[in-house]
Amino acid sequence: MMPLLAMTAPSGIERLTDVPMTPGRPLFHSRLLLGGLIPTGTSALTLESLDPGSGFVECSPMTGMAHWRHERRIVAHGTGCRVTDKLTFEPRFLPRLTAGLIRIFFHHRHRRLRRVFGDRA
What we know:
By secondary structure, this protein is an alpha+beta fold. The protein has one domain (about 1-5, about 45-120). It has one helix and six strands. A hairpin with a 6-residue loop joins strand 4 (about 55-60) and strand 5 (about 65-75). The radius of gyration is 15 Å and the shape is globular. This is SRPBCC family protein.
């Protein structure tokens, strides 16, 4: 299935822990690709914190956003886990459309996680 939105990463990077991290400094630069093909901007992937297995806080400068903060938390829940994403952002243009697209993207991402890892609530 074609991804709704893809982010490129340098060759050899499979997960965030593959890159040495300094809080507040970009890990790498990424292209944002709509449908995995259409360039829509760039991101300087920047983590404020990373707790492998528990979550992260990302504050990445990116094209189209005056502000972007993504906090992900992963907590044990029943026989599996619960993933919670908290986003705060300020689009540079078309705020209502951008918010709607981001909502669709994260719903899609969570559906894919449930498909891969199961839904054991």
